[in-house]
Amino acid sequence: MKVNLISNSIFNQKIYGLPWQYFFCISALLIVSIYLEVIPAGLTGSLLVMLVFGEVLGFVGDRVPILKSYLGGGVILAIFGAASLVYFNVLPSKISENITNFMKVGGFLNFYIVALIAGSILGMDSKALIKIGGRYFIPIIGATLCAVFFATIVGAFFSYSLQDSVLVIALPIMGGGMGAGAIPMSQVYEQLLGQPASYYISLLVPALALGNVFSIIIASLLNKLGEKIPTLSGQGKIMSGISIDEEEQKLDLRKMGIGLVVAIAFYLLGSILSTFIPLHTYALMIIVVAIAKVFNLVPKIITDSSSQWFSFVAKNLTLAQLFGIGIAYTNLETVINALSIEYITIVFAVVLGAAFGAGLFGRLVGFYPIESAITAGLCMANMGGTGDVAVLSAAKRMNLMPFAQISSRLGGAFILLLSGMIVSFFL
Questions:
Q1: Where are the domains of the chain?
Q2: 55 falls in which pLDDT band (50, 70, 90)?
């Protein structure tokens, strides 16, 4: 009986929504085409390589115990697995060049990022924004200030420059994950600081991975603290009388198309404004989209469509995108050289500062300190969506997911905007 159960479990596995046998056949065709050098360049070949290999690495990463629970699972393995294929010359150089061109020259990275920025903000529940308003941004700001302060102090102790401590470690950790955080941040740094984006992404990725680990650990410790000192915790409630109801939508293929057009249109508007305002296009796009949402300047069909397009891109293209980032933007040698006791200590200080600042500032506006520290602090310092799940699971507060999403989405957008402004005006 046990054998049958194991057998059924194996044969029922799916990758990318497909029974594994069919996915295996597609993978085999891809490998043969790579070996025979008949795989097409551009979107057709590059995207298939990224989808297949990205999904395989994601599938494995999400099932390796320690990697899954503490290091970001498939997200991290998709990036570093891809970087390892290049580093050890496993992937043919022609394939690597095609993917790099597709990501950089072909603009696939921009295509992905603008979908996340537009959809994450326009897709927010407007009632949640009205209920929480500027109050929730107080602990987010507190988390950011304390994270930067802790990073600066510890970094100075280890003779790290302010630029390295804040821009390369603290802000990426607080940026809401890879897709709408570290990736666009590396492009902002490339444009304004001079080094290529691949250099910065290789420094940012280790910070995110370690930050995710420490966020999960501290979340578990905060749960224990709440049990020992009940006055610090709302036992799963962030504040008396506040809850958020997320609106469910019926999927519509036409709306997804509208969302695609709207995301690119907002990006173009940000590009136009960047010719007059000394800020990065992404930062200006965030400002414009936020204004449109807060003041209800776009109809419901646009907000719904943007949300659906965001969901489609995030669900279907994230692992492919991460694999492409590993190929085109991640230098494994730079990553290895970046890791040190000093680096790890500064990362821990950032996450600890985020939790402390969010808890302290949250209490000032009536939030329970532990719930505020978890949602407004640790859910900004983790790796976005997957990190939110891991942190809230460790804290035994999955009911706080809507607040975690606000931190990951709007908090991440705030950090991206802040990093662009700091670099533009002070460096």
A1: 13-103, 108-426
A2: very high
Residues in Cβ contact with 109 at an 8 Å cutoff, skipping those fewer than 6 apart: 103, 183, 187, 321, 324, 325, 328
Q: For residues 259, 261, 267 and 272, what is the CA-based torsion angle, rounded to 10 degrees?
A: -140
How many Cα atoms within 13 Å fall on the side-chain side of residue 354? 35
pTM for the predicted model, two decimal places: 0.71
Query: From CA 229, how far away is CA 216, in angstroms rounded?
Result: 20
CA distance 266 to 275: 15
What would the pLDDT profile of 320-376 be if each residue is shown by its tens digit?
A: 988 987 888 777 776 677 678 999 999 999 999 999 999 999 999 888 999 999 988
On whether the CB atoms of residues 268 and 281 are closer than 8 A, the answer is: no
Over residues 245-264, the pLDDT tens digits come to 556 677 888 999 999 999 99
At residue 159, what are phi and psi to the nearest 5 degrees?
65, 30
Written in H, E and C, the secondary structure of 233-298 is: CCCCCCCCCCCCCCCCCCCCHHHHHHHHHHHHHHHHHHHHHHCCCCCCHHHHHHHHHHHHHHCCCC
